[in-house]
Amino acid sequence: MNKTVFEISKMDCLSEENLIRMKLDEISSIANLEFDLSNRKLTVFHSGAYHEIEKSVLELNLGGKRISTEETGRKDFQENENQKKLLWTVLGINFAFFLIELTTGFISKSLGLIADSLDMLADSLVYGISLFAVGGTLVRKKLVAKLAGYFQITLALIGFIEVLRRFFGAEKLPDFSTMIIVSIFALLANGVCLFLLQKSKSKDEAHMKASMIFTSNDVIINLGVILAGVLVNWLNSNKPDLIIGTIVFGLVIQGAIRILKLSK
Question: What pTM value is reported for the model?
């Protein structure tokens, strides 16, 4: 049995972990995967050479880099019984805030909140793919990934069209207070997800590292919407909301492209 360690610089949360799991699922030589999200490390236990595994990791464009490969005597791998429960919990939190942000985004006329809701939905889709495709064939998993990817791209493109319409049209200012309050709660929700994940991954670490929180894309997006809300009020303009909406819609499309790569 061999042990190969990878550094995955863009692996910030469970969403990227599940993308990696789905990508490597088709490689029969892999015995087990161990993720260290706080340090962005992936340890793969496998038989034979590492080259096929390395190729698959690099294809995800998550900043993967092989650190080391060595022999190991380890053969027993215990599956975490709480992993599925954790996945359902994180999926539930993300999907709930997708609905909350989507609803309040329409009510407050904030594209920033609507865009952030799609980012929450994107994470939910990745978790859902892992849950609903468990035990399924590789063909089934790829089909679900393809549908999820195209669905995300469609929603994001609709968002871009709305940005253009509001940029050139006369629109009322979004409700900045709603933007800020809802984004703060979304920020807390993402923090809870990261805390649960970190707690489940290591008995030695009962809390998240600060660096893990503030480098997470989801947290950065939440902070961006909060800042946009402040600027909307300060500048008396809807442009900050449109800018953050455009950025997040772009990130949603980027995530969708990653998912679509899994369907090839």
Answer: 0.66
